[in-house]
Design brief:
With 389 residues, the chain is of the alpha/beta class. It folds into two domains: 2-275, P-loop containing nucleotide triphosphate hydrolases (Rossmann fold, 3-Layer(aba) Sandwich), CATH 3.40.50.300; 283-382, NE0471 N-terminal domain-like (2-Layer Sandwich), CATH 3.30.2020.30. It is built from ten helices and 17 strands. Strands 1, 2, 5, 6, 7, 8, 9, 10 and 11 form a nine-stranded mixed β-sheet that branches. The longest helix is centred in the last third of the chain and has 22 residues, at 254-275. The protein is elongated and about 75 Å long. The structure holds adenosine-5'-diphosphate. Adenosine-5'-diphosphate (ADP) binds at residues 32, 35-41, 68, 142, 194-195, 230, 232-233, 236-237, 240.
């Protein structure tokens, strides 16, 4: 039987024009193809390790199907409060933390319908008074369903970390997760191999419990960064059960050191990513003629009329997916077409609603940059722009 839960607490509308993520620098999803691989353990310890180094960190437990963060942070009994229509996160180990688990009153299993679950999580993201954060870590529900996909698109993720265990079966599902993020252009920050060999606390010998290709091989195969391995360590289970994350105390155990190394690898990766081509525009908007003006921090800039954009619509109704040929009959596009509305899609694209009601094209930033470069070249060839008076 499907049990459908709703929560009155999360039914508040956000304040107009205010986003809970406005002052959040990096939004990082921690994902896995399946449950039980240690995604929540990694999210919690990573968040606490980053905070221990002085960063401002938030942690959202979006794992509605098995919220385990309140337990791992020793916050099972802490109630969320609403101040000025904003949910106040709970502060634990210097991490601002909110869990979908805090909204579920009983311990019964909850089957959330995907649209409701996604709506709740997005409300959570936008309604929480996160304040200024260097990192917001989102512990995603396991799998690659609608909830994960919508969040990947709507939560403006900086990137995703994929957690896997070393054996082949887990690697197969991890690949599925990778593909999902790649489809929606969310950068994969790296792969973490959890439960990666057991280190004997007496003799230090490492025993590989799970056989298989390993996260490192997956990273090599997919040409993605490998962020490191977390060993199978009984003190990790203990710390999860007791509500004291391993990275919160003296980082002496092998496990704690591995999480600290993971936090360092992540920071390094984020620095590298920031150096690559700036995909997100530094500014964009419609000018008084209704044209899109868009520019990037490295000086690339373009100005496109609604007509330019409409005839270049990349959606499946306008471009044949197999041949890449345009099937849109441009003669049918009114010359005086206008943009009625524009919206961001994650951190990678814009979407427009035109006055002919067409709204299915996702204009990726990389494509808009190419259009801007082509426009500049055309202008250089035809000399300075002449304006009619
Ligand atoms: P997920 O979020 O992927 O469902 P959890 O983080 O809840 O997985 O971890 C599942 C169980 O495995 C928990 O009991 C946790 O303490 C344990 N666990 C996770 N990582 C490790 C590890 N590296 N060593 C030992 N136990 C671990």
């Amino acid at each position: 039987m499907e049990i459908f839960k709703d929560s009155k607490q999360a039914q508040i509308e956000p304040e107009a024009g205010v986003s809970g993520l406005d002052a959040v620098k990096q939004v990082i999803a921690v994902a896995s193809g399946k449950g039980g691989v240690g995604k929540s353990t990694v999210s919690t310890n990573l968040a606490v390790a980053l905070a221990a180094e002085g960063a401002k960190v938030g942690l959202l437990d979006a794992d509605i199907y098995g919220p385990s963060q309140p337990g791992m942070l020793g916050a099972q009994r802490t109630q969320l409060h609403i101040v000025n229509e904003r949910l106040q996160p709970i502060s634990k180990y210097d991490v601002k933390f909110v869990s979908m688990g805090s909204l579920i009153a009983d311990d019964g299993p909850v089957v959330w319908r995907a649209p409701m679950a996604t709506k709740m999580i997005m409300q959570f993201l936008n309604l929480v008074n996160w304040g200024e954060l260097d990192y917001l870590i989102i512990d995603l529900p396991p799998g690659t369903g609608d909830v994960q996909l919508t969040l990947a698109q709507q939560a403006s993720l900086t990137g995703a970390i994929i957690v896997t265990t070393p054996q082949n079966v887990a690697l197969g599902v991890a690949k599925k997760g990778l593909r999902m993020f790649q489809q929606v252009n969310v950068p994969i920050l790296g792969i973490v191999e959890n439960m990666s060999g057991f280190t004997c606390s007496h003799c230090g010998e490492v025993t590989q419990i799970f056989l298989g290709g390993g996260g490192k091989e997956l990273a090599e195969e997919t040409e993605l960064p490998y962020l490191g391995a977390i060993p199978l360590d009984p003190s990790i289970v203990e710390s999860g059960e007791s509500g004291h994350p391993l990275t919160s105390g003296k980082a002496e155990s092998v496990g704690a050191k591995a999480f600290i190394a993971l936090a360092a690898a992540l920071k390094e990766r984020l620095k590298e990513q920031a150096k690559s081509e700036p995909l997100e525009p530094s500014s964009y908007g419609l000018n008084d003629k209704g044209d899109l003006e868009i520019s990037w921090s490295d000086g690339v800039a373009g100005r496109f009329t609604a007509y330019d954009l409409r005839v270049n619509c990349p959606c499946a109704a306008c471009i044949d997916e197999d041949s890449g040929r345009r099937v849109l009959d441009v003669k049918k596009v009114p010359l005086d077409i206008k943009i009625n509305r524009h919206d961001k899609v994650g951190r990678y694209a814009l979407v427009f609603e035109f006055s002919d009601h067409h709204d299915t094209g996702i204009y990726r930033y990389d494509r808009l940059r190419e259009m801007a470069a082509a426009q500049k070249e055309k202008q250089a060839q035809s000399g300075p722009e002449s304006f009619e008076v």
